[in-house]
Specification:
single chain, alpha+beta, 4-stranded antiparallel beta sheet, 5 helices, Tetrahydropterin Synthase, Chain A, about 50% helix
Length: about 160
């Protein structure tokens, strides 16, 4: 009798394990893709309008970064940056602008020469992404939505002409 109970118990476990594995492979039931759930669950009358987030642009004072290579200044980089954030978080961002500007200058002082070693021209898209990452690391995630480079200028050093 105890052997039969063990066989029944093992059989139930194997069947339930097989059922779960089959549902995972077929992506049905609780293991369905989110896309499949969305197409099955949503109907046109159930659609809810998405909330539109009010974006505010905060302009930062221009950043001036000297690029030093081989012991002398080879390039002066001037950036004017605009930061997109929500209206609720804009006052907090304005309060943290001096800290953010310091973090940008410190990071770009070492980042830009490394990029210029790889190529002669600085990629603005890479720079924009870098500024966003540094900003989020400095003042917290969720405050900065996007960083836009309003103006970008490179001024060659006078010593370069010699």
């Amino acid at each position: 009798m105890p052997k039969i109970v063990i066989f029944v118990f093992v059989g139930i476990i194997l069947l339930s394990g097989g059922s779960v594995a089959l549902m995972m492979q077929m992506e049905i039931g609780p293991f369905a893709n989110e896309e499949k759930k969305a197409t099955v669950d949503s109907t046109p009358k159930d659609e809810k309008p998405e909330k539109k987030i009010a974006i505010e642009t905060v302009t930062m004072a221009p950043l001036s970064i000297p690029i030093i290579q081989n012991g002398k200044i080879v390039l002066n980089l001037r950036l004017e940056v605009q930061i997109d954030t929500t209206k609720k978080k804009a006052p907090k961002l304005r309060e943290k602008l001096p800290i953010l500007k310091d973090a940008y200058v410190r990071d770009l002082f070492s980042f830009i020469p490394r990029q210029l070693r790889k190529s002669k021209k600085l990629d603005q898209e890479t720079l924009r992404r870098r500024l966003r990452v540094v900003g989020q690391r400095t003042i917290g995630k969720g405050i900065i939505h996007a960083v836009n480079i309003k103006s970008y200028s490179e001024v060659k050093s006078v010593n370069d002409a010699e």
